[in-house]
Amino acid sequence: MDSTLKENVPHGTPQKPMAAMHFQVPAGSACPDHFFVRRHWHDNVEMIKILRGTFKVEIDLEEDFLEPGDICIVGGGKLHQLRGFTPGSIHDVFLFHPGLLSFAYNDGFQEEVLAPWLEQKLCFPQVIRKNSAEYKFYGRYVSELIDLGLEAGEDWYFRCKMKLLDFLYQGWKGGYLLKKAGSPLSPGEREMIDRYKRTVSFIEEHFSKKLTLDDIAGAARCSSPYLCRFFKNMSGYSPVEYLIFYRVHQAAAMLEETTKNILEISMDCGFDNTSYFIRKFRQIMGMTPGQYRKTGRVK
User: What is the CATH number of the domain that holds 236?
Assistant: First the structure.
């Protein structure tokens, strides 16, 4: 259950930028032992509710454990990772783009509640324990949002949007929103996160071009040997491995969504040798590009 590190997968649509998802890891699945999503980030706010199993969440390099019933709220742009430790783990997720709550008219609610929250001067706590005093408040709203999103009934999006606005208002009124203090990250930790994001963003923005390790290191503002050690430690991939991984997944999307032939797709994704492209595609996706296209498989 890996994803690309700067998550560009749309959750919802431009008209309805939110989504609810249910994750269960049964025996016989691709990940029978545990759920795992590597460090990544996206613009959405992500609410996670643990239903079964023990998980370890990492948000901007800070780790915490989650037990059944616990809730985790990841702010937009936060580097995060989630790992399950229990076979058969289950959790639900609700994601939404924070910008959907902003108003064009700058009224008192926008100034006092929405703007500070959008600017992350006010924020949700990152972890809400099932036995905590604030759990009744957060548990109610997060559960209702997940249920509405998963049911996807009539007008579910409008109902979720109104519930999010009420969630923010009641959280502000009841003192449940936290005023952001100074960053708990050291300057060195902040630079690690920024360098990681610079590296991933550069790879994903330039994957179709001829790239060398020195090109990527230049964008990361460090030496090539240091980048290899640093990126492997942060992501589990070397920079070149991640570049190939990302190119292959972009090629898979093009195989599903276009009628371009394999040679065109390989060239468009930065491969100058079709045989090498096919070999790497088979290695990562478990089948050849031609087989993948025939299956019509959605990743």
Answer: 1.10.10.60
